[in-house]
Task: inverse folding
């Protein structure tokens, strides 16, 4: 197994508040994608997307804002090498985005053992009411972290089947430990609605299947809305 990564060095054209950053990044990424026929088709397809988007770095934690005319790094990952190469090219060529792309560095990440991970960007878990069909987003007041572990496991098993055409089932203790890192939900704006999200520290089981799913999570993101910049992981200290 392997995934690929581009580090995009960019210059912002306008100020962006933290609560708007996911919508801002995904809007501009999608805007660049429609200039390529294959990327446009991928963007409009149903199912899980073969990529995940991080956020801008560095971040002004005190003021919670990204500043115009400042240089930032955006990391994007994918398990599809051709997809990511195409995305790198359209980003470099795009002239009408809300940032100027200064450089793109392409890297390959080969399969390696993952003991633990932190969510660099928070995760989304949607919950749909069976009667009303209305969707809301999980918070720690809804249920225990066992519910979160089950949703992560099921989500990654489905992603693995879609991308590799092989059904695998991880053990129930696929995630041996999970810890929520925020006191209250982290709220973002998206299309005139509010997305409630949470950050986690996760420790994975060492068996082969658990490690495959953990590695996949790094390549395509954890849980939902990864193409909007949610569920982007970094390794914990081993």
Result:
């Amino acid at each position: 197994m392997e995934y690929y990564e581009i580090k995009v060095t960019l210059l912002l054209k306008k100020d962006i508040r933290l609560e708007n950053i996911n919508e801002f990044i995904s809007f501009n990424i999608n805007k660049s994608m429609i200039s390529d026929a294959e990327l446009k088709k991928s963007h409009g397809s149903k199912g899980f997307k073969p990529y995940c988007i991080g956020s801008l770095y560095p971040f002004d934690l005190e003021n919670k804002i990204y500043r115009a005319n400042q240089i930032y790094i955006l990391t994007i990952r994918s398990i599809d090498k051709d997809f990511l190469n195409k995305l790198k090219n359209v980003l470099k060529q795009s002239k009408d985005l809300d940032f100027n792309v200064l450089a793109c560095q392409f890297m390959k990440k080969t399969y390696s053992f993952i003991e633990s991970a932190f969510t660099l960007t928070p995760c989304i878990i949607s919950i749909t009411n069976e009667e009303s069909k209305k969707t809301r987003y999980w918070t720690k007041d809804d249920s225990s972290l066992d519910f979160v572990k089950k949703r992560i496991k099921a989500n990654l098993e489905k992603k693995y089947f879609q991308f590799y055409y092989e059904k695998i089932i991880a053990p129930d203790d696929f995630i041996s430990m999970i810890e929520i890192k925020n006191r209250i939900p982290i709220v973002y704006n998206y299309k005139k609605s509010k997305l409630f999200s949470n950050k986690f520290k996760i420790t994975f089981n060492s068996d082969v299947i658990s490690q495959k799913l953990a590695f996949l999570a790094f390549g395509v993101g954890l849980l939902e809305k990864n193409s909007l910049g949610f569920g982007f992981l970094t390794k914990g200290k081993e």
